[in-house]
């Protein structure tokens, strides 16, 4: 008979063990007493619950016990909406660790609420959360233990969410589903603005702003590889869950505690869900097949990531000097892509071109990209690696260019954005776009590193 639970006798024999520091004799006893491999693995990671004498389901977390603690408190709060109540309660009942719960957080538990920014579909505020998130159940005090200090959080309100919408609940569900990822912004719960009656998501606050705001700084290949590894890791986690982001751009990548995390999963949905034929996004990042009304796929996210790579290296928003209109949509389908404003390693250049290939089937997957950038970030410690050699070559080449100075990569760039260059998500509706194709580079990067004026590049042939 398959072992599903620990008997009282087994518990008594192992209750005083430190599951993270077992002696050889204790390991042998565990192997003898816990025959179920899944139970044994959970014990080694999470240890025993002090309440039910069974193995925890997460770090300092027992799902059966904590489910009861939450249910006993259901009568003491309401989200003022049956759908919101159901969403929060189901998360609390089913959570196998602290990352899988949502809380209803009264608005008066926030201090110093201040406006941050307004996006295509909502408004973001910064606030201090007096209590901080739940960590575990304290059996000595019989109450939830929180992290014990005020925490900076972001309050994200969707426009007109006082009448709760499917879109609002969908974004919360998707963020909750991804809460165990180390590369996705954490959601803690839901609150309600008493002035507007709009519901708001309570999420990690990005102390370093978004990726776009972080790029106008010193250029460094090592830091750029780390940035791209973080971003690729988040996209990998989304895709592993069978999802697609569908609105992937640098404004939806946030800097938190020296890392980069993906947010705004509102348009994210299962990869097998039918297309509603409406295209939302930021035009420069949207794959050409999607602009033409084809089904969005995970490969479309990869195209967006490719455009983000250009932005990370150039430290400039893509197509910042031209209108984001029908003309640009046509040119993208005809093969227009950003170009690097410095010489880059050939291995790197080849990878980026694969990401933005007009044929979605030729784009690499997020797992491969994550592995590649994880490997390349160590180039400084392996001077004989091909990427290390190529970085040395391009750095020597770039330094010899007339327009290149050391200060040019160590100071903030100044540039003018076209008045019709729009970097917030919106409905994109273009008709009769040409079939997507690639354009062979007619100008090889050998003599000059001057940026190319795309509006003068003839790609109609």
TrEMBL record:
Pfam families: Pkinase. Residues 110-377 form the Protein kinase domain. InterPro entries: Kinase-like_dom_sf, Prot_kinase_dom, Ser_Thr_protein_kinase. One of its GO terms (cellular component) is cytoplasm. Coiled coil: none annotated. GO terms for biological process: signal transduction. Keywords: Kinase, Transferase. Gene3D superfamilies: Transferase(Phosphotransferase) domain 1. It comes from the Eukaryota. GO terms for molecular function: ATP binding; protein kinase activity. This is Kinase-like domain-containing protein. It comes from Glomus cerebriforme.
